[in-house]
């Protein structure tokens, strides 16, 4: 396996990484690491008389992609006396294909999003319409029969109010997303007490969710210099997710703890459906929702965690989580402590 002859281009590419004269040298001497590589296996197969074509091989020493052909050269007796290796640098076409794939993916993401957004917005609107029609027909009846149940009106208005809140939340998430995309999410910073904000936000969440108990553990108390409303929004997003994705449990825990290097951490732990390993790397992505049938019944745009991450990172903090399917999740964000 010695180089017999090397054309100019191959010579110059190889010389970049393995300098010196090639002709006459063993290829394993030029690059000893070859011995363990697939390239070497392919060469051996070619010496056995097989024509080998490898379509897309990433170089082990650079960012280039190659198409390799190993062509056995035979003498009159049919014996292989040499192998000709032809390599085409296909990096440009691989990159182009990658870009096209990315574009196609983002196109699909957009159309999936429009489908999901229409559904998410339609659901509360349909429900509001239903209750309005119910009250209207009760009013009509009342004109004829002179009776109108106040409890029916109260129930309908309460449901309408709930659905309007849901719509408002969805729309403000969309608005925030477009602010982030155009770089217009501005922070109104002030010094505030994080522990008080946690208590207030938990109370707000409990106001609309009566099923869960949320216990707060203040292991550490501190002030933050940041946008109080936006940090409140991060807390709301994480708490409402904890509520939303734990239909079968009634317990949520919140910890405020001292973290490393002048930082404070807030963790929100639920005992809900959890997130399977294979989805975990994606959940902070814009529009991403776990694709298991059960999630489709939970309302949402797949924007909440993306917003939370953006807001926390704009405050020089970070956000992460641990989760186990069917056991629950713990989302934690850290922020620098004020002063
Ligand atoms: P949304 O809740 O609107 O779908 P998010 O961006 O808040 O969007 O969350 C993205 C996805 O991450 C959710 O669709 C859900 O699948 C998963 N997820 C988020 N929080 C939790 C949680 N506490 N438990 C289980 N899954 C979660």
Contiguous runs where pLDDT drops below 50 for at least 5 residues: none
Total number of distinct structural domains: 3
Shape: elongated
Count of helical regions: 8
Annotated CATH architecture of the largest domain = 2-Layer Sandwich
Which CATH class of the largest domain is shown? Alpha Beta
Overall pLDDT metric = 90
Euclidean distance between termini CA atoms: 68 Å
Ligand types? adenosine-5'-diphosphate
- Percentage of residues assigned to helices: 40-55%
Number of strands: 10
Strand content: 15-25%
Instruction: Summarize the helix and strand pattern as letters.
Output: HHHEEEHHEHEEHEEHEE
What spatial order of strands do you see in the largest sheet? 5-7-8-10-9
The CATH superfamily name of the largest domain is Histidine kinase-like ATPase, C-terminal domain
* CATH topology term of the largest domain: Heat Shock Protein 90
């Amino acid at each position: 396996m010695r180089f017999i002859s090397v054309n100019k281009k191959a010579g110059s590419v190889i010389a970049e990484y393995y300098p010196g004269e090639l002709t006459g040298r063993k290829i394993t001497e030029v690059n000893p690491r070859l011995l363990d590589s697939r390239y070497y296996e392919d060469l051996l197969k070619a010496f056995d008389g097989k024509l080998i074509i490898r379509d897309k091989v990433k170089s082990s020493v650079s960012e280039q992609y190659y198409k390799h052909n190993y062509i056995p050269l035979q003498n009159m007796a049919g014996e292989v006396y040499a192998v000709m290796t032809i390599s085409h640098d296909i990096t440009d076409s691989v990159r182009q294909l990658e870009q096209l794939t990315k574009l196609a993916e983002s196109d699909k993401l957009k159309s999936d999003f429009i489908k999901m957004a229409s559904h998410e917005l339609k659901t509360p609107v349909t429900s509001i319409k239903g209750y309005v029609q119910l009250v209207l027909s009760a009013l009509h009846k009342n004109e004829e029969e002179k009776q109108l149940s106040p409890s029916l009106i109260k129930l309908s208005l309460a449901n309408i109010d709930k659905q309007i809140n849901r719509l408002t939340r969805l729309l403000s998430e969309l608005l925030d997303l477009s602010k982030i995309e155009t770089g217009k999410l501005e922070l109104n910073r002030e010094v505030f007490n994080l522990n008080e904000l946690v208590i207030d936000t938990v109370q707000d969440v409990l106001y609309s969710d009566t099923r869960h108990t949320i216990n707060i553990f203040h292991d550490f108390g501190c002030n933050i210099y940041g946008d109080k409303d936006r940090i409140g929004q991060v807390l709301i997003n994480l708490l409402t997710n904890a509520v939303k994705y734990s239909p079968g449990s009634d317990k949520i825990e919140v910890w405020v703890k001292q973290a490393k290097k002048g930082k404070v951490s807030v963790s929100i732990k639920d005992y809900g459906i959890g997130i399977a390993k294979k989805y975990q790397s994606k959940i902070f992505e814009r529009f991403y929702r776990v694709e298991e049938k059960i999630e489709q019944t939970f309302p949402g745009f797949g924007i909440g965690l993306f917003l939370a991450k953006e807001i926390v990172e704009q405050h020089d903090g970070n956000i992460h989580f641990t989760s186990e399917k069917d056991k629950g999740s713990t989302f934690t964000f850290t922020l620098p402590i004020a002063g």
